[in-house]
Amino acid sequence: MNKVILIGRLTRDPELRFAAGTGNAVARFSLAVTRQFKRDEADFINCVAFGKQAETIAQYLTKGSQIAVTGNIRTGSYDAQDGSKRYTTDVAVETFEFVGSKGGNNTESYNNGFGGNNSDNSQQSNDSFGSGFDDDMTPVDDGDMPF
Questions:
Q1: Which residue of 7, 14, 49, 110 has the smallest Cβ count within 10 Å?
Q2: Comparing 15-19, 29-33, 89-93, 122-126, which segment has the lowest mean pLDDT?
């Protein structure tokens, strides 16, 4: 099984392009994902989204925006201009959610049709994932956390 779940912040604004011939939207972006036990270290993961998802990501997300992504790893290679072989590793986005929005505890979820059972590719969620509040909407004090 090839499945990836990431939560991170965009390291730069998404780059939106349209494929030659088909005109399909392709958005490329990089996520800074902190390591679980070393909060001062991060991995930088390249991601790619297609179609309506790509357009939504490019329209609403900017450098520093937090996002949760599910997808799969895709590897590839190409010949560089200097003749050397270059290898790529990207996460192809299947679904994503805006995380930590200004509006409080709502997150938006988008599905590109590769997983889940959303028929219209979007749904509203009342999940407090990443909002910083518990069920009674009081701030959570994470000062006593061991990590």
A1: 7
A2: 122-126
CATH number at residue 112: 2.40.50.140
End-to-end CA distance of the chain: 30
The whole domain housing 121 covers 4-125
Total domains in the fold of the chain: 1
Distance in angstroms (rounded) separating the CA atoms of residues 24 and 17? 8
Position 130 in a domain: no
134 part of a folded domain = no
Per the document, the length of the chain is: 147
- Whether residue 106 is contained in a domain is answered as yes
Residue 90 lies in a domain: yes
The model's pTM is: 0.67
> pLDDT tens digit string along 104-144?
444 455 565 544 433 344 333 334 344 344 444 444 555 55
